[in-house]
Amino acid sequence: MNSLISVNNVSKSFGKKQVLSSVNFSVSAGQIVGLVGPNGAGKTTCLQAILGLTDYEGDISVLGHHPRKDRVNMLNDVAYIADVAILPKWLKVSQALSYMQDVHKNFNLEKAHEFLAKTNIALSDKVKALSKGMVAQLHLALILAIDAKVLILDEPTLGLDILTRRQFYTHLLEDFYNEDKCIVVTTHQIEEIEHILTDVAFIQQGQIVLAQSTEEIKKRFNIVAVANEQLPQADELKPLFKNSMMGLTTMLFDNQDKETLQGLGQVSVPSLADVFVGVMNKETC
Ligand SMILES: Nc1ncnc2c1ncn2[C@@H]1O[C@H](COP(=O)(O)OP(=O)(O)OP(=O)(O)O)[C@@H](O)[C@H]1O
């Protein structure tokens, strides 16, 4: 597969505090990767290294460019949303569009107009007069109108209501994504983006603890609603996660034989959030 981003053995410290330790992963065309981890795990630092916004040890290549040494060329084909609230408040929507057209050679004004026409945002509106959700939509219009190969989204829907969050991801798939591009997205609301992810990378204390396609994850992990009389046998198989509620115990298993699990109770495919909780409770995976 055609690798658009490759991160090899990347480490990063702030003073004595190591926040990334030998991080390795790659992202190919067509992949939508969720970088998921608890608060302070190193997600933003990792994305900033990929974008050349912070220095690091190790090697990163984005579309063949070095993010620090060749940043200007790299940014022709990379788009980035860091935070929905960073557009200047005094800016008019029309000025934001002209600015993007002036500074970005791959910005398509017509596409931005088309996108904005689907919203309640007027070209004459100032950013300060827009609601948070509308600022996010404007931001998205500006970013999706860039014909970028790589899109990096760091918690792009933070603070937005559920309808706007859903709309955001729908637009992302319909108006930006195609098989020549890749997206890396961080979020704490994994259940909301699970359906769009092709791959996930779980990060914990600066280390990637699991990096796999969502398809492989669904095959590898199983949730079992364990019957009470089977609890001792189930415990022997060392579940990653165990939850008992109202007399019913559910357990998450990694790489266990399906038939054996079926003997313990009803087996189902876990959500990525279940797998995340299980993997985070385990030291290594
Ligand atoms: N500029 C900085 N100076 C010192 N420490 C920093 C700096 N930026 C981040 N850190 C530390 O690096 C670690 C990782 O932070 P980072 O922002 O990458 O985490 P995150 O996974 O994005 O967290 P969150 O989900 O809370 O946004 C944290 O312990 C944080 O305190």
TrEMBL record:
UniProt keyword list: ATP-binding, Nucleotide-binding, Transport
CDD domains in alphabetical order: ABC_DR_subfamily_A
GO molecular function, one term: ATP binding
Pfam families on file: ABC_tran
Domain of life: Bacteria
InterPro entries the UniProt entry points to: AAA+_ATPase (IPR003593), ABC_transporter-like_ATP-bd (IPR003439), ABC_Transporter_VariousFunc (IPR051782), P-loop_NTPase (IPR027417)
The protein's name in its UniProt record: ABC transporter ATP-binding protein
